[in-house]
Structures are given as structure tokens and as C-alpha cells.
Design goal:
This protein is an alpha/beta fold and 397 residues long. The protein contains 13 helices and 17 strands. Helix 6 runs parallel beside helix 7.
């Protein structure tokens, strides 16, 4: 069987599934502009790199990406014939013209995020004004996804909350299945330890509060975390804060003054640099150790896509404090498998962090239930079996 994955920057969310199918004997190809890692046994079909907006409006930008992907796919079909199935991310227009290249090949779309002018990430910041121009921009930005949804045979969304963002008329063809969490790698380990850059060694049982995001920015509640951490650091001289994440902007927009959010929040809060360690973006094995030694892990997010990191932290049994926003409520039950707090309630967050590190034994059951949540609903092998089953059924059809 032959499958082509379509993603602007591979392997993205397809990393586990692509490797799983390649190991099962499938011929796996990636159609992408760039590949972040090299995967054994997987062929790369590179399309021309597209300049980012705002050089051109979103519809034309997505059409440009779609035409480049279609041209590359058409060359492959001319040379080898159509693949058995195509599975691609629908968010940037890469799958926009796939049906025009292959008339009968089943198409599966990865449905990650559909934009709304209210009720989700846009407008969540109380200081953001949603103008008519912004509303029309979001509608145009969704247009490529709507056109793609009309042509695909099935869609997959990683969580129920993310699926619920898509227009109701398309939800009947979108299933819910997460990419999967490796519960054998992400597991509790009482003997885990983490060595900081200054040589200090942290172990489970130490009063360590952790925070992780791809980049330290408002979409993942970094300013709120820093304000609460500074407050707690003044109350508790023993607590240590360890932060993993880069200084770029994954979502939203950069600061108008050009400062990094890390520098700006250190200045605003007056946090003692000796009390907090910034690790930057770290290897996955080190990230797992960070979760394993955490006495309280903080995950805050706008109503946006759910990060893998929070699920991996739960799989490692880290005591979790998360924002009371839609993507977190989809997975976390307050007092059962984690704790929820108001996204902007920095006093409540500081209080929950203090209580969590002060009573680790009381949270043992909560940590066990958190891991059980992941093993029962997000285990990698189970997710791969569900995804593979869908793909095989469509390919055979």
C-alpha cells in the first residue's frame, strides 16, 4: 500500500503514524516544504518553499501553497500512478487541489483548528479589538479549509473540543482521534533526576514547579505564570521554578517593543534570576525527566489547540495545574486528574502551586488518575490502531 502525507513542515502530527505504516511495509512519502527530522524508510517529496504572508492576502497565499502541492503531487501520479490514500493537514491550503489531481484516491484531512471571531482564541485577550477587517480576514482564512472539507472523504481531529470548532455541516465526516502519547516513554519514575545548567540536580520530592511551552508567549499563559511564580517565590524561599521553551512566537504576534517575553516578564515581576531556570527548547528525553521530577506542572492556554506536552506530563504522573479553558476542560476534571484555575487569576494560580508542593502525598491518587486518563484515551498504540484502521478501510474501498 502507498500513502502520501501532506504537511507544510513535516513530519508534524504524522510522525508516529508515518513510522508505524513504514514499519508495517507501506510505501510512505511526505509532500512538504521542509522536513524537520529524517525518518528511516520514508521518502521526501519537496515542494517549492512559499514566502509567508502578509505579502499577499490569505486566500491567494493558501491557493499558492495548494497549487505548489498539487503540482508536486501531479508529477508523482504521472510517474507512478495514484497512491492508495492521501492524508494531509488542511490548515494551510496544501490539500486544496488534491481532488483535482486524483479523482478516485481517498483523501483524509487532519482537522486541527478552525478560526472564529469570538468564543475561542481570537478575542480571548480582553485588550484585543475585533474589527470588521479582522472578522473578514478570519472568514477568508477559513475558506481553504471549507473548500478542502468538501472534497475529502474523512477528517480526523485530535480532540472533541477542536472538532467542535468546525462547521456543523462537516462534523459528520470528522472523527476524533489523538496523534497518540507514548505511555512507555512518558511514565512515572521515582528515581528520575534532572541536572540543571548550573550543576544542580533536581529529584522527585524537591519543591520544583515546572512550565513548558514551545515558545514563551501569551497564547500559553506565560505572563500569567510568571506573575504567579514571582508572587509565590516571595512567599516560599525554597521553591524552584524550571521553564522549558523558546523565545520565539509560535502563535499570536511579537511584542511591539521588540522584547522577548522572557526578558519583559523578568523585568515586570522582579523575579530573582536565582529562583528560576530557563532551559530553552530541550530534547524530548530531558523534557520527560522534567515532568517526572515536577512537584507541580503548570499548563495555561488560550482556547486553542491542546499541546502534546500537557498530555505527556499527565502520563508521567506530574501534578497538573491547568487553565480553566475549553481545550483543558476537554481532558481535565478538577480535583480528579488535575486542578483547574482561571486563566488570568494569578492569585489563585499562586495559591494552587503553593498547596500542590506542600501536600504531595494528598495528590498521589490524582496523579495516578491523570496517568490512567492518558493510558485509557491517548495511548499511542491505541491511537495508531484506530488511525490505521480508518486508512486501511478507505484505501481498500
Amino acid at each position: 500500500m502507498r500513502i502520501v502525507f501532506v504537511h507544510r513542515h513535516g513530519p508534524g502530527q504524522f510522525v508516529h503514524l508515518a513510522c508505524h505504516l513504514a514499519n508495517a511495509g507501506w510505501q510512505v512519502s511526505f509532500l512538504c516544504e521542509a522536513m524537520n527530522v529524517q525518518l528511516p524508510g520514508i521518502r521526501i517529496l519537496r515542494q517549492r518553499v512559499t514566502p509567508p504572508p502578509p505579502a499577499i492576502p490569505f486566500p491567494q497565499y493558501h491557493q499558492q501553497i495548494g497549487m505548489q502541492a498539487a503540482t508536486t503531487l501531479d508529477a508523482l501520479v504521472t510517474q507512478e500512478g495514484p497512491p492508495d490514500i492521501i492524508y494531509g493537514h488542511i490548515g494551510w491550503g496544501s490539500m486544496l487541489f488534491a481532488r483535482d489531481v486524483v479523482r478516485n484516491t481517498p483523501l483524509v484531512g487532519y482537522c486541527e483548528h478552525f478560526y472564529h471571531a469570538e468564543g475561542r482564541d481570537v478575542g480571548f485577550d480582553p485588550g484585543e479589538t475585533i474589527t470588521l477587517a479582522k472578522r473578514t480576514q478570519l472568514r477568508l482564512r477559513n475558506s481553504a479549509q471549507i473548500s478542502t472539507l468538501e472534497t475529502i472523504d474523512a477528517g480526523i481531529s485530535p480532540t472533541s473540543w477542536q472538532k467542535s470548532a468546525f462547521p456543523e455541516c462537516f462534523r459528520n465526516k470528522i472523527g476524533v482521534c489523538h496523534d497518540g502519547i507514548d505511555i512507555h516513554r512518558c511514565r512515572p519514575d521515582d528515581k528520575a533526576k534532572l541536572t540543571l545548567p548550573d550543576g544542580r540536580v533536581l529529584r522527585q520530592g524537591d519543591p520544583v514547579i515546572t512550565y513548558v511551552a514551545r515558545d514563551l508567549e501569551p497564547y500559553r499563559g506565560f505572563p500569567q505564570f510568571m506573575r504567579a511564580a514571582a508572587k509565590l517565590s516571595r512567599q516560599n524561599p525554597h521553591v524552584t521554578f524550571v521553564v522549558a521553551g523558546g523565545d520565539g512566537v509560535s502563535y499570536g504576534i511579537p511584542r511591539s517593543d521588540g522584547q522577548k517575553w522572557r526578558d519583559a516578564m523578568m523585568t515586570e515581576t522582579g523575579m530573582n534570576p536565582a529562583r528560576i531556570t530557563f532551559l530553552g527548547q530541550i530534547p524530548h528525553d530531558q523534557l520527560i525527566r522534567l515532568f517526572q521530577i515536577s512537584a507541580a506542572h503548570v499548563y495555561l492556554t488560550y482556547p486553542f489547540v491542546l499541546s502534546w506536552s500537557v498530555l505527556e506530563a499527565m502520563a508521567c504522573g506530574a501534578p497538573l495545574i491547568a487553565s480553566d479553558t475549553g481545550p483543558c476542560r476537554d481532558v481535565i476534571r478538577h480535583g480528579k486528574n488535575g486542578l483547574l484555575c482561571g486563566f488570568r487569576d494569578e492569585d489563585q494560580l499562586a495559591k494552587l502551586m503553593a498547596e500542590t508542593i506542600a501536600q504531595p502525598e494528598k495528590l498521589r491518587a490524582m496523579r495516578q488518575i491523570a496517568r490512567r486518563t492518558i493510558t485509557q484515551n491517548f495511548a499511542l498504540q491505541h491511537c495508531l490502531e484506530r488511525q490505521t484502521g480508518l486508512i486501511e478501510r478507505l484505501a481498500k474501498r
